[in-house]
Amino acid sequence: MIEVSNLVKRYGDHTAVDNLSFQIEKGKIYGFLGPNGAGKSTTMNMITGYIASTEGKVVIDGHDILDEPEEAKKCIGYLPEQPPLYFDMTVLEYLKFAADLKKIPKDKKTAMIEEVMEMVKITDMKNRLIKNLSKGYRQRVGLAQAILGYPEVIILDEPTVGLDPKQIIEIRSLIKDLKEKHTVILSSHILSEVSAVCDYVLIISHGKLVASDTPENLSRLATGSNSLIMLIKGIKSDIQMALERIEGVKEVDLKFNDEQSAWNVTITTEDNVDIREQVFYKMAEINSPILEMQSKKVSLEEIFLELTEGEKTQDSAETVENSSESGPSEEKDVEKGGKAS
Length: 341
What we know:
Elements: E1 2-11, E2 14-24, E3 29-33, H1 40-47, E4 55-60, E5 63-64, H2 69-73, E6 76-79, H3 91-101, H4 106-120, H5 135-147, E7 153-157, H6 165-178, E8 183-188, H7 191-197, E9 200-205, E10 208-213, H8 215-221, E11 227-232, H9 236-244, E12 249-257, E13 262-269, H10 276-285, E14 290-295, H11 300-324, H12 328-335
Parallel strand pairs: 3-8, 3-9, 6-7, 7-8
Antiparallel strand pairs: 1-2, 1-4, 4-5, 9-10, 11-13, 11-14, 12-13
Helix pairs in contact: 3-4, 4-5
């Protein structure tokens, strides 16, 4: 549905988006995840044609956003982080205005507006001025204008920012319902939001795509995801020897738990290996009861930190390396109290 190729956006010396490439398929909810300042909103604005890219291209349903902007934009419904609302209009007036901008046929306009208002649950507010609505309802009005015309792709930039917990749950439920008829791209820095609603995750850091997969696959690929954590009573050497003989075990770590008078055991295994049944029988053979056993589940938070912190470390190393290449004359200037930037 969307193909992004080698997308770059520079503002002077600052590169906000750095050679970004990915594809969006129909009928899924995509989470575009990254810390504040990672380049998420800039990428969303380039996909929708709101701003032009420095390099690269965006193709939406076969239409290049720069060469065929009108045809490409017909395929997109966009809700920016700040909904584009006119506060002195009523909800109904605003949606009629949005429908006219989208060139929705007059004979379909009224029925479509009623249907969209019902979908986002703002029918009771249709005659209220937008300036008198709560932030949650304003967000719903913004979502309604994005859905008008039933575009193939709905792009939502930070759709729940600033909402209270009840409103967040309601907006997430709406987003899930959109999946039935639309492809949804959800930009967010809220990890729980992406975990709750998205089928596929794209993680961006410093303008670069650092990972793209389903949340489940990302969990399996993360460091420490193939681990079994247990509490076992018995003799340390016997436990360690028995566990290390199990096929698929890479590492066994034992630490004594004084409170339980037992061993905290962490087993690292090869990918996609389930050794729980074998562990049970091995411990039964040496009369070492298992008091607790659980597979470690790596959260999206841990994956996110692992990937984005790695990018920061790499960038810091490059900065140090580049600064070390400066000549000795620069060092002398600093020592003498000269100008340093």
